[in-house]
Amino acid sequence: MNITRLIIFISALHGAVGVALAAAASHGADKSPLLGTASQFLMIHAACGLALAAYLGSIARNDRILVGSIISMQLGVTIFSTDLISRAYLGDRLFPFAAPLGGGLTLLAWISLALWSLVHIRQKII
């Protein structure tokens, strides 16, 4: 399986769901704060996933740390946003501590990406 294409696929889904949630948030006043937050997270990370996939596909092929950071970011934002969606539409959490788990995983992915870039800056490979 081509990991770059998988990252693009997940990013495209994040973008599509983000747009749909933005529309839902603008039409449903009682659910809009949760859906608006989920939409923002998905849209931001969709763009980030596409940019990182482009970098991965062109320069950083087979970089497992970078791939791990990207997949962790996508998984984290998926769990976080799905928990918010579940709260808005089902009235309950996805599972206990889903939002903190997803948010924490997303945060760790960003930190991992920052550390990865520092290593490569020092190596002058980026």
How would you characterize the overall build of this protein?
With 126 residues, this protein is mostly helical. It has helices at residues 3-27, 32-58, 64-90, 98-123. Helix 1 packs parallel to helix 3 (64-90), helix 2 runs antiparallel to helix 3 (64-90) and helix 3 (64-90) runs antiparallel to helix 4 (98-123). It starts with a helix and ends with a helix.
SSE run: HHHH
Q: How many DSSP helices?
A: 4
What average pLDDT do the residues reach?
A: 90
Main beta-sheet annotation: none
Q: Output the structural class.
A: mainly alpha
Shape call: elongated
Q: Which stretches are poorly predicted, pLDDT < 50 over at least 5 residues?
A: none
Helix fraction, binned, reads over 70%
Distance between the termini: 25 Å
